[in-house]
Amino acid sequence: MSQSITSYGTAFRKLRQQRGYKLKEAAEGIVSPQFLSRFERDLAGISIDKFGRLLVRIGASWNDFLRCYKGDSITQLISTLEDFNELYDARDFYQLAQSARNAVNQSYTDHNLLQRLINDMIDAHLAILNQQTDQYQNKFSFLNNYLSSVDTWGDLEWFLYSFILDECPVSMVTFRTRQAITLLSACEPSCMTPKALMRVIFHGIRFLYQNSLLDEAEAIIKAFDKAIKCAKYTTYINEHLALKCYSAIIMVLRHQPEGLELAKSCMTLFELFETDLEISHLNLSKNRFFTFIEKHRDKSIPFEW
Fold first, then answer.
1. Rounded to an integer, what distance in angstroms lies between the CA atom of residue 66 and that of residue 69?
2. Does residue 115 fall inside a structural domain?
3. Burial of 68 by CB count in 10 Å (0-12 exposed, 13-18 middle, 19+ buried)?
4. 178 in a domain, yes or no?
5. Structural domain span for residue 12
6. Can you tell me which residues the record assigns to a coiled coil (predicted)?
7. Residue 135 to residues 127, 160, 171, 200, 257, Cα–Cα distance (Å)
8. Which residues are within 8 A (CB) of 262 and not within 5 positions of it... i.e. 6 or more apart?
9. How many domains is the chain built from?
10. What crossing angle do the helices spanning 74-81 and 93-107 adopt, rounded to 10°?
């Protein structure tokens, strides 16, 4: 049998040894040492229940195990694809997308649906970036049909959704944005970090107001504002500022004078970060926010920045 790190048994043995447990110590009271030895050599299978107990015995989590296991899994797939969700810049995005596509095609040859989902997602996301969505409606339809067919989303569905949100039905965006707020409040286990969930929420808010659904966008902002005020998110300064900006945008689109004052407050914070704290990575956001407010504000309302 294969002794590569792509086997469950070999990965567990590596994790057990890393944590300083001998075979007998890890197995005691759960399985026999002989059985565990056979499992680690890929000569026997094991139930999820007993495997979970073995992880607890050596003080390891499922995530610890997955960091050792490098074979086919949704977690491994998402880790590969996140390279071009988190780390790309304008110059290397296409190269990273191609690398992700190659990884999927090589590793998931026995899963045609998964291959198609990921390849279509890459094409769809590129189409959104290039503003060529009309040419890829068949791919968007396939992805949306898949997402609609799954009631309880797992890591894969949330990941796909985050790339094609702009082309999803309004009903899906509304429901999933509210669900993301619920996940954020409850801290339910997910591959998505709080910051990733917040990006999905902000993206959903932007989608709604761009489609003139101001009432729904405002309601979601209020729900999000309540969730983000939780003590565990007090250090999420950028996200708190972004929420203030979106609140200002909604009010400006409603031609409410208070929105202009809130926008002015946001600009003051942007400039404080830039000048006093020397935080420059928000410059693009600041410029886009200023341009949007200037374009959409009611010029009949007296206002000075």
1. 5
2. no
3. middle
4. no
5. 8-68
6. none
7. 8, 19, 23, 25, 41
8. 244, 247, 248, 251
9. 2
10. 160
Gap between the Cα atoms of 87 and 216, Å rounded: 32
When pLDDT is cut at 50, 70 and 90, the band that residue 209 belongs to is very high
pLDDT in tens, 261-281: 999 999 999 999 888 877 777
Dist. CA 10–CA 2, nearest whole Å = 9
Q: What is the pTM of this model?
A: 0.75
* Residue 154 forms part of a structural domain: no
* Cα–Cα nearest to 303, from 272, 269, 263: 263
- CATH number of domain containing 57: 1.10.260.40
Helices (H) and strands (E) in the chain, counts: 17, 0
The string of pLDDT tens digits covering residues 140-182 is 999 999 999 988 888 788 888 988 999 999 999 999 999 999 9
Indicate whether 3 pLDDT > 60: no
Q: Which of 68, 89, 115 is the last residue of a domain?
A: 68
In a domain, 258, yes or no: yes
Residue 12: closest CA among 29, 44, 220, 166: 44
Distance of alpha carbon 210 from alpha carbon 145, whole angstroms: 23
Q: Is 272 exposed, middle or buried (0-12, 13-18, 19+ CB in 10 A)?
A: exposed
- Residue 61's CB: how many other CB atoms inside 10 A? 10
